[in-house]
Amino acid sequence: MRAMQDAFRDAATRRLLITWAVLMGLTLVTMLSAQLGGDARLAALPLWSAGLLLATTFFKVHRVLMVYLGLADASPAWRGAFVGLVLATLALVASGYMMARF
Amino acid sequence: MAERHELSQPRPLPNPGWGPLAALPGNPLMWVLILSEMVVFAAFFGLFAWLRAGEREVFDASQQLLDPVAGGINTMVLLTSGLFAALAVQSIGRGDRRRCRQWLGAAFALGVVFCVVKVVEYADKLGQGLMPETNTFFTFYYLLTGFHFAHVLFGLGLIALVAWRISHDNVETAAAFWHMVDLIWILLYPILYLLR
C-alpha cells in the first residue's frame, strides 16, 4: 500500500497507473462487447460488437507497446513497424472472421 | 538562444552502436525476440482464422465450452502483473533495489495466479474429455495457450533470476519479456475465447 502511495507522487508512474486503469477498463469493455451473458453467448456476435472487440484489442496492445514497453521513445519507423504488425495480425483475424460469416 | 539550440538537438539514441536497433529503448535483442514472437503468434492467429472460416460450426460449438470469464480474469491478472513489472523498472531506475524487489515479487505472485487459473482450466477441459485431438479448435486451444503458458513459466523464472541478480539492465530486460507475454495474451484472449 505504501509502495502504491509513493508511486502516485511521480508523473511517470502516474502515467503507468492511468494506462493500467485504461487497460483494465478496456478488458471489461471487451468482455461486455462479447455479450457473455445468457443466451446471447450462443449466437454469433453482431458485426459492431465484433468490430468493437477487435478495436479494443488493438488499443490495448498499442498501449502496452507504447507505455509498458516504452516504444513511444523509439523512432517513428520502429513504432510504425510494430503497430503495422499488430494491425496486420488483427486484419488477418478480421478477414477470416468475415469469410466464416459471409 | 542556448535553450532553443538545445531544443533543436536530436534526442540521443538509447542504444548507440546498434545500427538500425539503436533507436529502440532497453535491450535491443529483447526487441528482436519480441518482434519474432509477435510474427510467430500472428502466423498462428492467421491460420486459426483461416481454419475457422472452413469449420465455423465446430469452432463456435467448441468455443462455448471455454470459460471466457476465467480468461478475462487472467487478462486482468497479467495486466496488473505487467504494471508491477513496469514499476519495478522505475524503482531500479531510482536506485531503490528494495522497492524494486517488492514490485518484482508482486509481479511474480500474479504470474503464479495466472498459472493456477490456467491449470484449473486445463484440468476442467481434460476432465470433460476435451483433448488436443478432439477437433481443430481444441488443437489450437492447447497449442496457443500451451505455448503462451510456457512463456509465462519462462518469464517467472526470469523474474526470479533478476530479483536475485538485480541490476537496471536485468530488470528492464525481464520486464520487457513479461510485457511481451502480456501482449500476446491480450491478442489471444479475444480471438480464442470471445470472437464468434
Automatic annotation (TrEMBL), chain A:
The keyword Membrane applies. It comes from the Bacteria. The chain crosses the membrane at residues 12-34, 40-59, 80-100. Keywords: Membrane, Transmembrane, Transmembrane helix. The keyword Membrane applies. This is Cytochrome C oxidase subunit IV. It comes from Billgrantia aerodenitrificans.
TrEMBL record, chain B:
Residues 30-196 form the Heme-copper oxidase subunit III family profile domain. It is a multi-pass membrane protein. Pfam families: COX3. It comes from the Bacteria. Keywords: Membrane, Transmembrane, Transmembrane helix. It is found in: Cell membrane; Membrane. Belongs to the cytochrome c oxidase subunit 3 family. This is Cytochrome c oxidase subunit 3 family protein. It comes from Billgrantia aerodenitrificans.
